[in-house]
Amino acid sequence: MLRTLLLSLALITGLAQANTTRQLPISLDTDQGTLYGSLLVPQSDEPVPVALLIAGSGPTDRDGNNPEGGHNDALKKLAQLLARHGIASLRYDKRGVAASRAATPDERDLSIERYVADAEAWGRLLEGDPRFDRLILLGHSEGALIASLAAAGSGAEALVSIAGPAYPIGQVLDAQLAMRLPPPLLAESRQILASLIRGQEQAEVPKALQVLLRPSVQPYLISLLRQRPAEAFAALRIPALIVQGSHDAQVGLDNAVALQQAKPDAELALIPGMNHVLRITPLPWHEQLASYDDPQLPLARALGERIVAFIRSSARQSGR
């Protein structure tokens, strides 16, 4: 009876919180077009923290969905989780993606520097909003690198890196491809990546590698491959949390360890069983695939616990 009562109270509380949270459309005008996002604001009489959620690589939208990699609503669910704990969030479609596609319709014009400038601009917009008392950047995968690069220019007071790379992206891509490609195709991918690292585009790309290395995306890759994620993370002068799933088949645990070595005062949260899309799954890659396209699966519980605790503790550190 007590268990039933507690569950009922939890459900009622959850519904009450959901009813006091507003999701509002928001836009950002840039010199290359307008970007669009969703602002989730819990009801409060006092200013609340706000997290800027930055999506990972490719055409990943504000909710964490990618037409090439599945529909799982990872970032949307994370925003809702934060709201239930009194933390606002803004998640947005990157330029060239979903509602923000018109801002940069030709992917040849994309660059990591442009993505960083956009994150900085979103951050400054939030910093000037009286509903919020401090800004936290929260980046997933490639978005974690963007968050590190944008931290100083955005006015952020804390940063959360989820499945963030530590090594140069060429090494990360090579490790991912080595898991999935037959030796001849892997050799071709390595040759193309080596050319891109030198800043040289490659017109001839095998059909099987077009999704990742097609000529039109190579200018962006060249801008990305010259970044040094661990160095960018080490340069942070704000509290940081590194979140890493033990079953992440795309960004391995060694990246999280290297990030903490680069910034020893950063917290490290290892989530047992969590994969790259923030769900608890078996370790074998083929047994994880279904989670990439299942928005009904809950996020790993410890993920929310660690992020919420970090945001609250970082407020105490800043005297808020």
Q: What does this entry show, briefly?
A:
Helix 3 crosses helix 4 (about 140-155) and helix 5 packs antiparallel against helix 6.
Word description of this protein:
Mean pLDDT is 92; it is low at 1-18. The chain has 320 residues and is of the alpha/beta class. The chain is 41% helix and 18% strand. It is built from eleven helices and eight strands. Strands 1-2-4-3-5-6-7-8 form an eight-stranded mixed beta sheet, sandwiched between helices.
The order of strands across the largest sheet is 1-2-4-3-5-6-7-8
CATH superfamily of the largest domain: Alpha/Beta hydrolase fold, catalytic domain
What Rg is obtained from the alpha carbons, in whole angstroms? 20 Å
| CATH class call of the largest domain | Alpha Beta
**Average pLDDT across residues?**
92
Helix content: 40-55%
CATH topology of the largest domain: Rossmann fold
**What class do helices, strands and sheet pairing give?**
alpha/beta
CATH architecture of the largest domain: 3-Layer(aba) Sandwich
Features of the shown structure:
globular, 320 residues, 8 strands, eight-stranded mixed β-sheet, 2 domains, disordered N terminus, single chain, 11 helices, Rossmann fold, alpha/beta
